[in-house]
Amino acid sequence: LSLKFGDIGNLKGLVIRFLLTTSYYQLSVQNWFSLHRLQLLYNHSVQATFNATGIHAPATYSFHCEHVSSLQRYDALLVPSSANDLSKLWEVTFIDFQIQGFNVQEGHFAYAKDCASFFSPAILMGLVMSLILLLVLAYALHMLIHLKSLDRHYECKASPAYFAQMKDNDMGDEKEPLRSSGNESYELRNQQFGKIYI
């Protein structure tokens, strides 16, 4: 697949050539295409060659990637084929790159296989958060299962011993002097029998 740009500045007859192959894989039971090399030609000769890594898709699909580049910050899917040629002097970056070598119908790309990995940082963060929430849920279920019944607590409060304890606490309040003008009198308070004045 060749993209011909013609003369651009000092570059006479600039051409970007993609070398694609197709192969049949028994494991997936279908043909896959791969981009093996990218060549830069100008002045009617090959000036730079890059080996492509990881650019492949089923033959009925297209391949899409946000960046296909020779730069390390974009994962360097294009690697200079040799240290002896001029590939080291070139920095090649395709933005919003999409390619389909075979089975092109009506001039439109087929469904695209994206180059994004299955374990991108966002996906890994989602998995970690899911694991944390799962641990919190498991701890909450563990606490609910081992929750003790409150029946014994209510029985203790309803028992006579509880009221006897309350009665002991209030013994100091049963006898209380009444303030009057002349005589000293006491008021005996009992919750069961009412009030008695002496």
Describe what you observe in this structure:
InterPro entries: Ac45_acc_su (IPR008388), VAS1/VOA1_TM (IPR046756), VAS1_LD (IPR046755). The protein is α+β, with helices and mostly antiparallel strands and 198 residues long. The chain has two domains: 2-116, no CATH class; 118-157. The protein has four helices and twelve strands; from the N terminus they run βββββββββααααβββ. Strands 1, 2, 3, 4, 5 and 7 form a six-stranded antiparallel beta sheet that branches. The protein is elongated, with a radius of gyration of 43 Å. The model is unreliable at 161-170 (pLDDT under 50).
How would you describe this structure in keywords?
198 residues; six-stranded antiparallel beta sheet; alpha+beta; single chain; 41% strand
Describe the structure concisely for a colleague:
The protein is of the alpha+beta class and 198 residues long. It is built from 4 helices and 12 strands; from the N terminus they run E-E-E-E-E-E-E-E-E-H-H-H-H-E-E-E.
